[in-house]
Known about the structure:
single chain, mainly alpha, Helicase, Ruva Protein, domain 3, 0% strand, AraC family transcriptional regulator, DUF1465
Amino acid sequence: MSEFTAQNSGAISFREKLAGSQAFSQLFRDGMALVEETAAYLDGPGRRESKALPRSGALTYATESMRLTTRLMQLASWLLLHRAVKEGEMSLSQVNQEKTKVKLSPTFSADEETLALLPDTLADLIRRSLVLADQVRRLDATIHAPADAPQNTNNPVEHQLGLLKAAFEGR
């Protein structure tokens, strides 16, 4: 059943509901908590730890912390846009237009050898941000899939369960 058909038949739009689901709420809380934790670390202990690194380590720290901050700001933007759907402040179609400004494409990530040069806390924050980015990309692909994407018309409930599983796999 396409989103258009669901809206016209009085059925609930799966995509709208997914953006307002409990699973999205948890992802939102986790994502925003990671943003806050990262900011606190980079402004406090991370700043001190970076000064203790050798020159090459300090350069790696600066590069990776900038990538981390950029990644988290993009993810926070996406999460805030979709929270606006949940709160009824924006429609999914409005968010679909706005989200083009948010880059969710796979980002460059440091390999384990590079992460080993960094303080443990920063390396952990980077790894966790990459997991969050994967979860958001899967959810985005589910919510914003083209309405004419192939679907299991024999059992729409089974199809929606499959979409949910794909969106939140690995959580």
